[in-house]
Amino acid sequence: MIRGIGSGVGGLEEALAQAAKNQKARGTEGTPGADFGNTLTSAVQSVENQQAEADQSVYRVASGQDADLAGMMIALEEANIGLRAMASVRDKVVEAYQQIWNMPI
Fold first, then answer.
1. What is the domain partition of the chain in residue ranges?
2. What does pTM read for this prediction?
3. Do residues 79 and 7 touch, judged by C-beta distance below 8 A?
4. Quick check: 11 and 82 in contact, CB under 8 A?
5. What whole-number percentage of the chain has pLDDT above 70?
């Protein structure tokens, strides 16, 4: 159950790798923006799954079903890292949108 704390961002990397595999399978590999929405959706889903896993871990420790306090803390930290990484991506996307919006025509 104990995983490295760095695997919080690993969930995002896995989602991006899966999206790249899907693009290759469909033959849309070189198409700009072809699956940006799907990639973003799978990354958000990955972070959501990490949050749910951390919640379950807290519940198990709080209810006495599991005594692995270290595992719970690692799951919480992975979820936190994933959420912060997703927030950082969101901030960059919003910043890029604002730069495009403010471009002179």
1. 7-101
2. 0.64
3. no
4. yes
5. 69
Residue 2 tokens read as 């104990």
Q: What span, in angstroms and rounded, lies between the C-alpha atoms of 38 and 56?
A: 27
Element (H, E) at 37: helix 36-63
The upper half-sphere exposure of residue 83, i.e. CA atoms within 13 Å in the direction of its Cβ, equals 12
pLDDT confidence band for 37 (50 / 70 / 90): confident
List, for residues 50-103, the tens digit of each pLDDT value: 999 999 999 999 999 988 899 999 999 999 999 999 999 999 999 999 999 999
User: Up-side HSE of residue 4: CA atoms within 13 Å toward CB?
Assistant: 5
Q: Hey, what's the torsion of the CAs at 7, 8, 11, 17, to 10 degrees?
A: -60
Q: pLDDT band at residue 1, thresholds of 50, 70 and 90?
A: very low
CB 35 within 8 A of CB 22: yes
